[in-house]
C-alpha cells in the first residue's frame, strides 16, 4: 500500500477522505497524491481569447492557494503529499495517474445530506467508481485512527467475480485484515438450496485456488443481508465487485447498491471487474 490517490474538492467530505488516507499512509509509509479536477470549459483554454487565458490562470492560481491551505494539516505531518491539478473533470485521467505512479488505492468522501445516495446518481464518486481500474474506498463518516481488521467481501460467487475477489484478497493481506466472504441467499428466482449454494461456492474457491470459508446468510433482500451480516461481524469495510460502465448497479441489479451504501455507516470499497 505505497501510493494512495485522494480526489478532493476542498469540502468536509474531502477532508474526511484525506484523514482516512493519512491513517492508512502512516501505517504503510505510503505517499498520498491529492488530486483536484477543475471545472474549466474549453473556452477558458482557447488561445485566441486572451481574457479566457487570464481567467484560467487566475483560477489555477487560486486553486494552488487553496491547495496549500487545505494540505496544511497536522495529521499530514511526516507523510509525503503530492498535489496534482487537472484542468478538466476527465475521470479516465485518474487511471493514467494511478498507472503512472503505480497507485494501490483511491479514497473518496461522500457528499450530501442523504449520505452516499448521490454517489450512485451521477455524482463524482459514481464516475470514479465506474472509471477507476484500482480499488475505490468511499467513506461516509470520519473514523479516528482508521484501521481495517475485518474485511467483508460480498458477491454471488459467479466466476466473473474472480478478478474482484483476487483484488480484495490482495488488499486484505496488505492491510493484515481478516477477509470474511459472504453469499446472501434470498427468496425468489435466485434462491439456491444449501447444497447448490455450496457447490457453486466450492467451484469458485477451486478456480480461485483459495482455502477460505464462505458464510451463507439468509435474508429477504441482498442489501439488508449484507448490511446485517457486516454489522454482526463488526466489519471495518464492505467490499463489492463492480462492472465499469454501470458502476455498482450491475452486480446489485439496480438500486441494491445504492440502498446498501445509503444505510451503511461502514465504509464501502469497490473492485472493478
From TrEMBL:
Q: Which residues form the UspA domain?
A: 1-140, 149-271
Known Gene3D superfamilies for this protein? HUPs (3.40.50.620)
Return the Pfam families for the record: Usp (PF00582)
Determine the domain of life of the protein's source: Bacteria
Please report which protein family the annotation says this sequence is part of: Belongs to the universal stress protein A family.
Q: What is this protein called?
A: Universal stress protein
The organism that produces this protein has a lineage beginning with: Bacteria, Pseudomonadati, Bacteroidota, Flavobacteriia, Flavobacteriales
Amino acid at each position: 500500500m505505497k501510493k494512495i490517490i485522494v480526489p478532493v474538492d476542498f469540502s468536509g467530505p474531502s477532508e474526511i477522505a484525506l484523514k482516512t488516507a493519512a491513517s492508512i499512509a502512516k501505517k504503510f509509509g505510503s505517499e498520498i497524491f491529492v488530486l483536484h479536477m477543475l471545472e474549466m470549459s474549453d473556452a477558458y483554454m482557447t488561445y485566441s481569447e486572451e481574457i479566457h487565458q487570464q481567467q484560467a490562470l487566475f483560477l489555477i492560481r487560486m486553486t494552488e492557494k487553496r491547495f496549500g491551505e487545505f494540505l496544511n494539516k497536522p495529521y499530514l505531518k511526516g507523510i509525503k503529499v503530492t498535489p496534482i491539478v487537472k484542468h478538466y473533470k476527465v475521470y479516465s485521467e485518474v487511471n493514467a495517474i494511478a498507472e503512472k505512479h503505480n497507485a494501490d488505492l483511491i479514497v473518496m468522501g461522500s457528499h450530501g445530506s442523504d449520505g452516499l445516495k448521490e454517489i450512485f446518481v451521477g455524482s463524482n464518486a459514481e464516475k470514479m467508481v465506474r472509471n477507476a481500474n484500482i480499488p475505490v474506498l468511499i467513506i461516509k463518516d470520519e473514523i479516528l485512527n482508521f484501521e481495517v481488521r475485518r474485511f467483508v467481501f460480498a458477491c454471488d460467487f459467479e466466476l466473473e467475480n474472480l478478478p474482484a475477489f483476487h483484488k480484495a484478497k490482495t488488499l486484505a493481506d496488505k492491510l493484515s485484515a481478516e477477509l470474511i466472504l459472504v453469499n446472501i441467499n434470498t427468496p425468489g428466482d435466485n434462491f439456491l438450496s444449501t447444497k447448490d449454494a455450496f457447490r457453486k461456492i466450492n467451484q469458485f474457491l477451486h478456480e480461485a485456488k483459495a482455502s477460505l470459508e464462505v458464510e451463507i446468510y439468509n435474508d429477504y433482500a441482498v442489501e439488508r443481508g449484507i448490511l446485517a451480516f457486516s454489522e454482526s461481524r463488526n466489519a471495518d469495510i464492505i467490499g463489492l465487485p463492480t462492472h465499469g460502465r454501470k458502476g455498482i448497479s450491475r452486480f446489485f441489479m439496480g438500486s441494491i447498491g445504492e440502498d446498501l451504501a445509503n444505510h451503511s455507516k461502514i465504509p464501502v470499497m469497490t473492485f472493478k471487474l
